[in-house]
Amino acid sequence: MNCPLCQSKTRVINSRTAGEEKAIKRRRECVQCKQRFTTYERLELLGLEILKRDGSREPYLRHKIELGLRKALEKRPYTEQQFQKVVSAVEGDIFNLEKELVPSEQVGQVVLSHLKSFDKVAYLRFASVYRKFGSTKAFEREIQKLEKSK
């Protein structure tokens, strides 16, 4: 791996598992400029495709789940470690489906199931976009469902 600052070679100082052992966290140091930084190695879900609502297909991209979750969790109290744990749990559930083609609706359901126990406000935000709430009544119904499931 090359240094992100000076592009020289780097060396690994420390390695350990991270994210419920689904990633490897490596502490690195540049041989040239001595800058230290951290990298993460994660399992890449090769060949996994998402079937969109319009019938099109696209490759699975972890960062799309991260973006959706960050938007739902905007201005909510959480740590980066908690966030990465949720993303890894979602990704693990998707991977455990053992399918090469996963409908986007199923991905949304997996995300919602994890948000429901993690942050109810973020759950409502995500659900409102995912389920395309068109009125305040839809929010009210979803809030009532949340209240009943306590």
Automatic annotation (TrEMBL):
Transmembrane segments: none
Any GO BP annotation: negative regulation of DNA-templated transcription
Annotated ranges, domain ATP-cone: 48-138
UniProt GO molecular function: ATP binding; DNA binding; zinc ion binding
InterPro entries listed in its UniProt record: ATP-cone_dom, NrdR-like_N, RNR_NrdR-like
UniProtKB keywords: ATP-binding, DNA-binding, Nucleotide-binding, Repressor, Transcription, Transcription regulation
Protein function: Negatively regulates transcription of bacterial ribonucleotide reductase nrd genes and operons by binding to NrdR-boxes.
NCBIfam families in UniProt: transcriptional regulator NrdR
Family to which this protein belongs: Belongs to the NrdR family.
Protein name listed in UniProt: Transcriptional repressor NrdR
Species annotation: Candidatus Yanofskybacteria bacterium RIFCSPLOWO2_02_FULL_47_9b
Organismal lineage: Bacteria, Candidatus Yanofskyibacteriota
